[in-house]
Design a protein that fits this description.
CATH superfamily of the largest domain: P-loop containing nucleotide triphosphate hydrolases
Bound molecules: adenosine-5'-diphosphate, magnesium ion
Strand content: 25-35%
Largest sheet: 6 strands, mixed
Structural class: alpha/beta
CATH architecture of the largest domain: 3-Layer(aba) Sandwich
Helix content: 25-40%
Number of domains: 2
Number of helices: 18
Length: 497
Amino acid sequence: MPYLEFRHLTKRFPGVLALNEVSFSIERGTCHALIGENGAGKSTLGKILAGVYTADSGKLLLSGQPIAPPSPLAARELGIAMVHQELAFCPNLSVAENLCLGDLPRRAGFVDRTALRARARAMLATVGADIDPDTLIGTLSTGREQLVQIAAAVGTGAQIIVMDEPTSSLSAAETAELFRLIRELKSRGLTLIYVSHRMEELFALCDHITVLRDGRHIATEPIPSTTPARVVTQMIGRELIAQTPAHLTREPGPVRLQVQTLASPGKFSDINLTVRAGEIVGLAGIVGAGRSEVVQALFGLDAAATGDVRISDRALPLRSIDHALAAGLGLVPEDRKRQGLVLGLNCRENTALASLPELSRFGWMHRTAERSLAERYAKRLRLKTPSIDAITAGLSGGNQQKIALAIWLARDCDVLLIDEPTRGVDVGAKAEIYQLLDELACEGKALLVVSSELPELIGLCRRILVMREGHLAGEVTRSDFTEATLMRLMAGIPAAA
Ligand code: ADP
Ligand code: MG
């Protein structure tokens, strides 16, 4: 009999079927990975088990007995706890108070501070956490706060712990510490459900892996009998594009962007580059090399920029976003939360944002035009949202990035500056974004892409320019692309003799 079994579990939210007849089981004393793209239903599954949500239909069986914890407290009594992605404690209470919140020790009507501290210390000791029980939760790092959550679970006798993307904001040292603890808990017979989309972690840590996609169960397999590539295919439901991007098989067109002696005091100097129609040119470099500063200056965002910039052979006046927009330039910024999207707006409004002049006739927004534009791009970008009226802030990173791109697609600009196109985006959405950039190049757009991920630039670009300390350190063409060559230029190490 399986230890823990999900049988035809179904959960619906307004407009979304978060879990669709999910069935699989988990063995006692194992670490079970749960993987899937954003929105696949991983957190929902964990929350049903932990009593945060109740399923609409289907069954949950623990050692063959049906269970349906109506609350987190009820789940705790069954020995099930969840370590949440988001802060789960009162930040302005101490570690000890949080750990004993449900059952504060009292003496003569007052909270017994000594007993409180002793009990908290004992709970922290179960996970080997060296944390002062009097520390305020709000002053702990995410890693330490998680440790307290785990202590709360283990200290109250949890036998099953769900960890929802525990390492997403941990340092390397904290992650190593967490892994050590997970192995230790497993050796004590606890069962762990580990949600993550970091493939290396899962393969290093877990015994079995379950893949969810769009709320459906795709596979449950022992880790030794699968591979990361196989799991990725299961997650996204199709092969990752591994082939050469199509734009590379065509001849680039005329020069669209020409930059000569671009400079900005204290940021960068003597930047010379060209990007042709149908070309994707990469801009590599370490953080602080000046890459983002260059694309921002091209887009008119640098009040001190000087130099000679031409778009399709017409001089572009610098230091003016209006001129940049009018010349057919677009910028997808690195920090899309702050700069690229207006998160309070819905997808439709966001897509229409950069096209406002075209859409507003006689001073008001052309609603029908705005809607059809947004629908066209939602389809093209395979946007996963219940409706184009959904508020952007509720969407996953990948979908937000697609909207940031849609803003400029809708404008149909000739030259696109794209800063870190896939930062914070999961693996399936990454492949779709690469595909989209390739399509844009095939349509004859000129793309200048800043990225810190060399494999991304190597996969996508015809040429890669390398910046270091505010200068162009070199240019590498596709036939010479290797990570070693690029890294040497980035770090300023001369090529080996
Ligand atoms: P994952 O953790 O795999 O990223 P989730 O379980 O959080 O996915 O979400 C699955 C789907 O259910 C998504 O489409 C998400 O938008 C939706 N969803 C999750 N929680 C809620 C909620 N409380 N209200 C409405 N929709 C939700
Ligand atoms: Mg989640």
